[in-house]
Amino acid sequence: MEEGLKYVGAGLATLAMFGAALGVGNIFSSYLDAAMRNPSAAPQQQGNLFLGFALVEALGIFGFLIALILLFVV
Amino acid sequence: MMFRMELDPMHQFVIQDWIKWHPGGIDLSFTNAAFYMFFGVALIIGFFLIATSKASVVPNRIQSVGEMGYEFIANMIRDTIGEEGFKFFPLVFSLFMFVFTANMLGMIPFFYTTTSQVIVTASLALLVFFTVIIFGIMKNGLKFFKLFAPSGVPWPLLILLVPLEIISFFVRPVTLSLRLFGNILAGHIVLKLFVGFGVAMLSTMGIAATIFWMPLVMAIALTALEFLVAFLQAYIFAILTCIYLNDAFHPSH
Question: ipTM score of the complex?
């Protein structure tokens, strides 16, 4: 029973992908939106783009880590 | 030992002792992870020795690649900290080069990815974390703790904000290390899984064997993505180091 619930928990942890996908999609769509309006200002904001991407993606990665901990550690 | 085919996607992260050595009960064995870290550092040193050996005003090819690396980190520090941040150029440059080389070496088949071990990334992140604290207190004294109380905020809000700022400061080494570790680990697992799908489909000898190439095509696309991630994670590690160091230089935001 407990053994099986571990896999259910790991499966549920993949839901973190949902939030990370929304966040990453939002960042790139806003960036492109703004870059199409003012292409000359776009290269200076590329650092911020990747920074925001990294911060959002990290939260998705935490979900992945919880899945790993459930599968291999607990 | 190294070239045995394994379908288990976690097998690629197993640490093997190449030379066993236990002085006084402490495990100091020379492992495959240690070897690839030394190999990466040797590659970096070798590359920059060659790039700077015949330095001239008009750079040759290898020298201009080295200069590109220098300019890349120099611009990053100039944009985030400013000119006074060049004190930390060697730190940021070594961190970037080490992470980048480790990630790239990991993309070569059968090579070990040292950044897929959380202990490696955690050591790097803790180095950055303690550098920021020690340098920040040395430079600003007690004013460094203004970092936790943003200026221009009404005091009732501070009750809420200060604990949040403290938590977000102390969670930094965790996120910094886990981001790199998680990205590299997840990427390599996914690559291995897709190749494993292809092999498993082919071995069924049934209808599935006719489309075994589909996961393999996906694996090729993912390899390209992983090269991007390998660079991107090194870049993000370096730029976050700069941003955290900026707090030590200018604590009151």
Answer: 0.78
Q: What is the pLDDT of residue B135?
A: 92
DSSP state for residue B10 in the 8-state scheme: T
**CATH number of the domain bearing residue A7:** 1.20.20.10
The length of chain B, given as a count of residues: 253
CA distance B10 to B7: 9
Q: Is the per-residue pLDDT at B169 higher than 70?
A: yes
Average pLDDT, rounded, for chain B? 87
Q: How much is the pTM?
A: 0.86
Closest Cα partner for B236 from A65, A42, A9, A51?
A: A51
The number of distinct structural domains making up chain A is 1
Q: What range defines the domain where residue A56 resides?
A: 2-72
In whole angstroms, give the CA distance from residue A54 to residue A41: 21
Beta strands in B20-124 (DSSP E): 30-31
Residue with tokens 């990427």: B187
Crossing angle (nearest 10°) for helices A46-72 and B172-204: 70
Q: Flag whether residue A35 sits within 8 Å of chain B, measured between CB atoms.
A: no
> A58: nearest CA in chain B?
B179
Q: Which of A50, A51, A61 sits opposite B178 (nearest CB)?
A: A61
Name every chain A residue with its beta carbon within 8 A of the beta carbon of B239. 47, 50-51
pLDDT of B95 over the 50 cut: yes
A6 in the Ramachandran plot: left (φ > 0), alpha (ψ -120 to 50) or beta? alpha
